[in-house]
Design goal:
This protein starts with a helix and ends with a helix. The chain has ten helices and seven strands. With 194 residues, the chain is an alpha/beta fold. It is globular, with a radius of gyration of 16 Å.
């Protein structure tokens, strides 16, 4: 971890949102990768924002909390009405909203950077909304890093099928990383230049 701690005093307090799926469970590779990302972020002094619940949200929260980071769970009434779930035990601060839209907006607006781990419809929506807000300057410029082959294949298919609709200048808002270690390095470089 020492290679990631060198910029700690420079980045302490910056907020990083992590998007990701709710399906991974402890001891599964996706959960462990999310946990490792949380450890990197917490040890480097970032404040970590997640959706606050289960799966990768729990894993990132746990890793960050166990590494000394501050964890904010951004929760909402609509999620809990749809699925009986409560904030995970590693959430230190709960920012609760009535609606899913308010929750999503808080996750995007209340951070200086975001990382998207593998996930489903919700994670895809989070990426798309953030990307659209970056494109239209509805959100301040900030890094958005997508992790893994699945997102790379998704973007490749998107560009191949509908590339005429996506200007080259708008593609710059999304970075790709093969794994959480590389995503963290890219994040440090991007935030270090601010």
């Amino acid at each position: 971890m020492s290679e990631f701690n060198s910029q700690q005093s420079q980045i302490s307090g910056l907020r990083v949102t992590v998007f990701g799926g709710s399906k991974p469970r402890p001891n599964e590779p996706e959960y462990e990768q999310a946990y490792q990302l949380g450890k990197y972020l917490g040890a480097a002094g970032y404040t970590v924002l997640t959706g606050g619940y289960i799966g990768t949200m729990e894993a990132v929260s746990r890793g960050a909390a166990e590494s000394g980071g501050h964890v904010i769970g951004v929760t909402c009434d609509e999620i809990e009405a749809w699925r009986p779930v409560k904030p995970n035990p590693w959430v230190m601060q709960e920012n609760r909203f009535p609606t899913l839209n308010q929750r999503l907006n808080a996750l995007i607006q209340d951070c200086e950077a975001a990382i998207a781990l593998p996930g489903g419809i919700g994670t895809l929506a989070e990426i798309a909304v953030m990307w659209s807000q970056l494109q239209t300057a509805a959100s301040a410029p900030k890094p958005l890093v997508l992790v893994g082959l699945g997102w790379q294949q998704t973007l490749d298919a998107f560009y191949q099928g509908l590339g005429d609709y996506i200007a080259d200048k708008d593609r710059q808002w999304v970075q790709m990383a093969p794994d959480v270690t590389q995503a963290f390095r890219q994040l440090q470089v991007a935030l270090g230049s601010r």
